Structures are given as structure tokens and as C-alpha cells.
Amino acid sequence: MRFIPGIRRLFRIGGVHDVESAVDDELRFHMEMTVQDLVEGGMDESEARREAERRFGDVAAARARLASLDRERVNAERRADWWSALGQDLRYTLRGLRLKPGFTMGVVLTLGLGIGANATMFGIVDRLLFRPPAYLAHPGRVHRVYFARRVDGVNSRNGTTTYARFLDMQRLTHDFDVVAAGFGWGLAVGTSESTAELPVHGVSADYWRLFDMRPALGRFFAPDEDSVPETAHVAVLGYGFWRSRFGGSPGVLGQQLRIGRNDYTIVGVAPHGYHGTGLSAPAAVIPLTAMVASEWVDASELATYRTAYRNNVVNVVVRRRAGVTLEHATDDLSAAFHRSYERQLTEQPQMPPPAIARPHAIAGAIQSARGPNRGSGAGVSIWLIGVAAIVLVIACANVSNLLLARAFDRRREISVRLALGIGRGRLLAQLLTESIVLALLGGAAGLVLAQWGGGVLRATLLPGAGWTSTLTDTRTIVACAVVALVVGMVTGLAPAWYTLRHDLAAALKSGSREGTSHRSRSRSAMLAIQTALSVVLLVGAGLFVRSLRRAEAVSLGYDVERVLHVSTELRDVTLPDVQFGMLQRRMLERAQSLPGVEHATRMVTVPFRRNWSPDLSVEGIDSVSRLGSFELQAVSPGYFPTMGTRLLRGRGVEEQDRRGAPPVMVVSQSMARRLWPGRDALGQCVRVGADTTPCTTVVGVAEDIKTQSLSDDRGLLYYLSIDQVGELRGIRSGLFVRTSGEAAAAGENVRRALQALMPGTAYVTVTPLADMLAPERRSSWAPGATMFTVFGALALLVASVGLYSVVSYGVAQRSQELAVRTALGAKARDIVRMVVGEGLRTVLLATGLGLGVAWAAARWVGPLLFHTSPRDPVIYGGVAVLLLAVALVASAIPALRASRADPIAALRAE
Questions:
Q1: Crossing angle for the helix pair 781-813 and 101-125, nearest 10 degrees?
Q2: Those residues with Cβ within 8 angstroms of residue 653's Cβ, 6 or more apart along the chain or in another chain
């Protein structure tokens, strides 16, 4: 009898109250047994009870001790049971998935595509908006400072300021333990043929205190090396530049490196992954005073420059002292900026007084994309997160559909397990374990896809940013794991809901036909969700791709694909205008003699980059400027063949149009119509610069070109001989070089040949004209087209795989029905028509729904497009045809397989 309570407690399952109840039963049992023994020994019952209580002592304490021991034992048993159950579920799941490799691969690939797309976008948005810069110490207390004031009645927020203002902020603020500054600039690095323009950071010596890091080699520069009037020419190399240019040699310390106009002594190498407070790693970091003295003022003027509020190029970064609130820090910055503004008024009294300007400072996030002056990249990235989420929803719907079909297929197995006594909660845990394991495998596949397939997306949205491997990025891996767990729970809800809602034991009686109609409705609903969302993405892809193509197809009036732009940077070489002109002519002759070069010309302005609009005077017109802004392009002979711009009448600039010869002009067709409507422009007189200058005769009319806008460009342009105006006006010209093949492929050969002509440390930069004009020609249409096309293709792939899988499962589950139909005389084409028709009906309805959603959202998409209607019927129709074609193929494959099946074998298997 004594062992009965112990057995009861061993098998008791319950909470804390159950444990305490068991302890009370145990104590009561032992108390009664002791009293019974004492009574049997001759003691009175009341005395026996007192003696038993004396022997047991403090019952409450004993009760608490036993309860604690039992509670620990019960918890340990529960943990052991939980781990044992989890191990059983995992083994069962892995065994079942191994037996269904096609199903497993389909689910993992589908989730991998959806999770991979979101992992890629998470990495982009995290880097742009949330991730603090590498090695940054106390990132929550570090801020980028913005200087705000009213200018002409408009609030202006400037993320850059003057060097003098930075010094004021250092001196006048009190709530910060670091006030640092820096800015990046493209400077020539190296000498001779190795010269290239690379990003160089100029930072104050205090800047290093913002980071918790050690140099990979050598040291960082000290405060006494970033001072005036004697600034030190020392440099810390970027890790990537050190490895690529110097092979990672430790002997680089002490070597001289030409940066900009000066030679710098290399004193250290920044650690791997360092990119300052921006997104791109620098080739080198030099003292801020050295950068200012090198690029903005002469070294002798640096002391004066410290108090001169000129050139807003410096970014100020601060770190709050521990315990200082953001509100107090902002007030401290604003007070310092107010006093600095008052000092600036003494130098520039024409500025509005503080009462009107209302100067104040803003302590913004260290990520500039989260600041008040954030660019379009942040908005586009956040917007495209929604696109990636749609892909994930499509993938989840697809997988839920597959799991639901699998649950229907396993209903007999589940019914048997229920009949054998398994609880619904235990069964639910096993089903969710299966979906979570599949989601985690999909997450792993997604990380691999994000690593190998996300480069295009990252380069499109954040070109130039340094990226770490997705497979080693802890933040992305954690985010991907969280998404996978959520996806696993979500995708497992459909079969779990079916398990809890239906009396699966009835399936033992009803056979394979039970639940067929419900199964079909559930699968069709999820398939419709996938297809409708895919339609929305594909319509967006079509609209943006058409916008991009139309923008790139706009006739510019010149050929950009085969033209190189050559610019000359003199560094510290001083050349008078005449000598510079001679250098340019030698470069022109060398370029024309190179193999693979068809034409070359000198020029002054670059479309969409530089323009020059001097005053014009025309006889019979009171004010030429009222008719528009007429741009000047100074060129040498061969300009029009080089650019591919057509001459409509007359001639172009030729060899005889030299200095001292009668000045000539070629005007655009629009300029001719504007100035001489109804008359011939050839032979007309135009005075350039002032009405007292000599007459410039129009000798040709050229086709219009676009220099400012793709859509609204009036084409008011004229051409003069560079030999007649260039050196006289102090114009520093460049070259356009036309190649016989792709311009980018010939760029390096042209650069090397022309670099050999450069005097001293001067160098040339050669850039394909197509690359220079790409931002204007591609604008926001390129990211939209790229992202919508990639994600639309992913959605189409996932939806087609989903349709194929669903139809295949349907055919497998209906094998007995189809066998009976065949045995009763149904033809193969009847089976194909029935199966394909069911798939097409669902896709057709979903396509109509998706097109309706896209049509409703058109008004928000319209402003982002270029010469493309957001409700273009061709795109809508094309997407519908594409979806139906994919649906036809995805449905036809399992339908054909079903039509060829042996009905006898199917009936025997059933």
C-alpha cells in the first residue's frame, strides 16, 4: 500500500497546484501511517497523533522542501519529455521528407526564392538605414549634424558646413565628448600610368575617437598632424586599396604616395571593413587640414581660412556624453550654431539677421539616408521591400497549398494515429515541426541565393558601397532565421487548421473521396492569391521596363555608345592657356592616330554636365535672352562626325576656322527657327558676348540635341570654333573620342596613350559618355525596371511551380477517379482537357483579379514612369497572355502524365 502514492505522483501530469497537492497527499499518507503504527504499539490515538506531529516537526517546511523537490523533478521530466518529443518529431519529419525528395525540393526552392529576395532587400535597407558603421563606438550616441535656417522664406537643412563653422562647434559646444568632421572627395591617387581618381577622405584627428578599432598596420595620424599653419602630409590607406595596389605588403609604411597635388607619407592602414561614417571605403584617409589646404586654399591661406565661412564641404559628426539626452544635445548644438552665425555676420553683413534666418542645428541619425536630407535611394529601397514581401507571400501561399495537399493525402495515416491514441496537440506539434524544418531549409537556400543572386540588386540601389558576404553577415542570418520561423508557422497553419477542424477518424470510413471538394476550394484559393500577386508584379515590371526602354530610345542627337569623354587634370602643374591649348592639340593628334579610333574632337561642354550660355545679340531682336537660353559648345573640326550629330544644311567647323579667320557658327534647327522664323539661317550675323563684338556668321544648321532634359529640352544650341574662342576665354577643354567598337573596351588603351603626353603629375580621366549620361537616361526607371523584373520573374517562377505542384498533387490524389473514367471509355484528350481546364479556370479568374488591382494602383505608379501610361493595354494584355501560357504548360505536363497512366495499375494501387 505504501508504494501507491509514489506511483500516482510519478504519473501525475499538472501544474504547480498539482505538485503541491501531491506533496500534501504524501505527507498526509506518512502521517497517518505513523499514527497507525503508534496506535498498534499501544498508544492512545490522540497521543499517537501528537507524537507523530512531534516526529515530523515543522510540517510547512517539510511540505515546502518536498514541493520544491517534486517541482524540480516534474520540470526536469517535462523538459526531458519535450526534448524527446522534439527529437521524435525531427526524426519523423526528416525521414518523411527524405522519402519525398521531389516535394521537399519544391518546397525548399520555393521558400528559398521568397526568403532570398527578402534577405537581399533586408541587407540593402539594413545597410542604408539601420546598420551602424563598422567599428563605431556607442552608435546610439553618435549623430550627424545638420544646420538649418530660413533662406528666402524657405527652410533649408544643410548636411555640410564650412571648416570655420566646424571649429566653432568644437569650441562652443559642451555636451559632447567628440566633435569631429570630414568629407570625401575624388582625388588623383598615384603617379604616371597608375594614376586614377579614387575616393579620399579628409578627417579631423578626433574622428578616429569615434571608432573602437586598431589599424591593420602602423598607426592613425595624431592631433598635432592635423593642425595649422603646418599640416602634416600623412595618409592612412584603406584596407582594400592597400591589398590591391600594394599587395598587402607591410613595407608600405614610410613610402610616399601622391594624392591630389601633394606627396603623402603612409603611416598606417585602416582595418578591414572600415568605411568611415559613409557607405564606401576610401582609398586613403588624410588629415582634414591637409585636404583643405590641398584642394581649396593655398597652405599659406589656411590660417585665414579657419575663420572664413566659405565652401560648405565639411560633414560634422558628434558623440553625446554619457547621460546627456538628445534634447539637451540638440539645444547645445543650436546655441553654438546661433553664436557661430552671429560671428559669420561680421564677415558677411549682407546675410539676414538671426531673427529672420532662425539658425538651429539638428542632431540626426549617423546614417545619412535617415536624415532630413535623405535621397531617393532610401525611399526606393523601402518601396521595393514591399515588392519583395509580395514574393514571399506568393511563396508562402504556394507552400501552404502544397502542405495542405500533403495533409489531405495523409489523412488516413493521421486517422490511424488518432485512433491509436495520439493527442491532437501532439499531432499539431508534429505538423508544425515539419513546416518549420522546411522553412529553415528554405531560409538556408535563400541565404545562398541572396549571396549569389543579390549582387545585381545591391549594385543597382547602392553602387559603390562595400558589401560583406551574406553568408557571414550575422544580422542578415538572424533576420533570415526569424523570417523562416515565422514562415514555417504561417505555412503550417493550413494543414494544422484542417487537422483540428475535421474529424479525421471519419476518413477511415469515407475513403479517398472524403474532403475532395473542400480540398479543391482551399487549393484554388491559395493558387489564386499567388497568381493575382504575380500579375501585379509583372504589370509593374512591364511598365518600368517600357519606361526605361523609351528613355534610352529617346533620340539625343548624338551617339553615346561609342564615344569616350577625356578630361585633363593638371594637379599642381601650371600651364598658361596657350600652352594648354597646345597640349590639347597634341592629345587630339595622338587620339586620332590610335587603332580603333574613328574620330576625335576637342570640346568645352558636356551634355547634362556642363553648359555655357553667354549673351547673344541678333539684328532685329531687342532681347535674345527673352526667346530662351542659348547654350554654346566650342568645338574643333571633326566634332559632328565624332558625335554622330547630323548637319542638316551648310557645313560644320572646319580646319580653316582658326584664330584670326572670320568667326563662324553652326546653330541647331530649333535655334534657327527661334531666331529667324521663316528665313534661312545660313549667312545670318550673331554677336557673341556683347553687341560690340565682331559678327559671327552662321555657316551650318545641325539637328537638335538634348543637353538638359530627356523630355522638355528646347534644343537651343550653337557651336563655335574652339580655336577662335577657347584660349581667349580661358576655357579648359576636353576631348570626345569615337571608337570603332564598344567605347568602354577601348577606354584603357586611350587613357594609357594620352597619359604619356601629360607633363609632371598631370593625368587624364577617360569615361564612356554612356556612363556619364546613365543617371539622366535611366533615373528611377532603371531600379524600378530591375527590381520589378527580377521579383516579377521570381513570382512567375514560384507561381508556375505552385500551379504545377498543385495540379500534380490533384492528379495523384484523383488517380482512382481518373482510372475509373479511363476504364469507362474516357479518351486521353478528355483527361487532358479536364485537368488543364481546371487549372486554367483558376488562373484566369486570378489574372482578372490581379489586373484589377494593378489598374486601381495605376494612379500611384504613373508619376514614376516615362512616357508610359500606367494602364497600357498592351502590357496588361501581354501579362495576361504570359500567365495563361505558363498556366497551360504547368497544367499540361501532369495532365499528359495522367492521360498515359495505366488505369488497371492505378486501381490496383488504390
A1: 160
A2: 635, 636, 637, 639, 664, 666, 719, 720, 721
User: Which of 477-486, 602-611, 623-632, 830-839 is the least confident region?
Assistant: 830-839
Of 366, 392, 426, the one marking the end of a domain is: 366
Non-local (6+) Cβ contacts of 212 within 8 A are 135, 136, 137
Query: Cα separation of 164 and 95, whole Å?
Result: 71
C-alpha cell at 735: 576631348
**DSSP tag of 127:** I
- Distance, first Cα to last Cα, the chain: 55
Q: Pick from 318, 361, 329: which is nearest to 139 by CA?
A: 318
Contact 811, 894 (CB under 8 A): yes
In angstroms, the CA 876 to CA 887 distance is 17
Please say whether the beta carbons of 492 and 434 come within 8 A: yes
Mean pLDDT of 235-253: 93
CA 884 to each of CA 640, 811, 901: distance values in angstroms, whole numbers, following the listed order: 50, 20, 26
Asked whether the beta carbons of 282 and 111 are under 8 A apart, the reply is no
**Amino acid in the structure at residue 798:** V
Distance CA 103, CA 403 (A): 9
- Residue 601 and residue 735 in contact, taking contact as beta carbons nearer than 8 Å: yes
Q: Which alpha helices (DSSP H) does 100-161 contain, by range?
A: 101-125
Q: Give Cα separations from 55 to 26, 32, 34, 714 (angstroms).
A: 16, 13, 9, 109
Tell me the whole-structure pTM to 2 decimals: 0.68
Tell whether 109 is covered by a domain: no
Looking at the fold, whether 204 and 273 belong to one and the same domain comes out as yes
Q: Which amino acid is at 234?
A: V
Instruction: Judge contact between 546 and 518, C-beta under 8 A.
Output: no
Domain for residue 774, yes or no?
no
**Cα(126)–Cα(468) distance, rounded to whole angstroms?**
12
**Strand pairing report for 616-618 and 734-739:** unpaired
Domain count, the chain: 4
Contact indicator for 865, 543 with CB cutoff of 8 Å: yes
- Whether 356 and 392 share a structural domain: no
Tell me, yes or no, whether 527 and 661 share the same domain. Answer: no
| Mean pLDDT, range 159-163, rounded to an integer | 87
Contacts of 271 (CB under 8 A, 6+ apart): 135, 213, 214, 215, 216, 239
d(CA 418, CA 894): 33
Give the number of other Cβ atoms within 10 Å of residue 869's Cβ.
13
494 domain-assigned? yes
Closest CA to 791 of 394, 360, 305: 394
Do 506 and 442 share a domain, yes or no? yes
142 has which bridge partners? 319
Q: Verify that 739 and 831 share a domain, yes or no.
A: no
User: Using the 8-state DSSP alphabet, how is residue 136 labeled?
Assistant: B
Residue 45: domain span = 4-95
Do 328 and 440 belong to one domain?
no
Segment (H or E) for 204: none
For residues 813 and 698, state if they share a domain: no
89, 160: one domain: no
Query: HSE (CB half, 13 Å, CA atoms) of 768?
Result: 16
Peptide bond into 863 cis (omega under 30): no
Residue 81, C-beta contacts closer than 8 angstroms, at least 6 positions apart: none
Check residue 43 and give its pLDDT.
80
- Measured CA to CA, the distance from residue 696 to residue 683 in angstroms comes to 9
DSSP 348: -
Residues 890-901 have pLDDT tens digits of 777 777 776 665
**What letter would DSSP give residue 513?**
G
**Contact criterion met (CB below 8 Å) for 508 and 415:** yes
C-alpha cell at 97: 521528407
Q: Are 197 and 188 in contact (CB under 8 A)?
A: yes
Across the range 270-288, mean pLDDT stands at: 91
Of the residues 366, 392, 410, the one at which a domain ends: 366
